[in-house]
Amino acid sequence: MTDPDEGVAADGTIRTGARRDRVPAVFEDVLTDAVDSVGGSGASLYLYGSVATGTARPGASDVDLLSIDLTDASAVARRLSTRYADRCRGVEVAAAASGELAGDTDAAYGLRAFLRHYCVHLAGPTPPLPFRRTPPTPVLLAASTATSATTSGDGDRA
């Protein structure tokens, strides 16, 4: 299922339904464990996807996390996927470095816009970059179209 709140707001900026209060209760233990995994490492952790928009289906959806500066993201993903196999298809932890947020490249701009509009901050420091509401540029629209084309009917990656 796609995010019914995704689109362009009246002021011309990106609008999504990703919010902490929309997370289905069945996934709370997964998120608590994920946050505990980050601990005092200095890494940041964000939630995105169907769990963040409240459209996830227990047992069928995956839990999508984005880490910034987490050195063992794949190990965390494996551990959480095994532990919560009864609740979700898997726990994916994408890894990025804080340096990827800096600069004027399309990739840096896209990552900042993704964090600002599609992610829910769970733990760690918030990068010290401007996170203003963003209008959809051709780069972001292309990325959104590519993401839509690679999702299954329930909004999760195929």
Automatic annotation (TrEMBL):
Q: Which residues form the signal peptide?
A: none
Mind telling me which SUPFAM superfamilies this protein's record contains? Answer: Nucleotidyltransferase (SSF81301)
Task: Extract the InterPro entries matched here.
Answer: NT_sf, Polymerase_NTP_transf_dom
Q: Which domain of life is it from?
A: Bacteria
Domain Polymerase nucleotidyl transferase: residue ranges: 40-66
Tell me what this protein is called.
Nucleotidyltransferase domain-containing protein
UniProt cross-references to Pfam families, sorted A to Z: NTP_transf_2
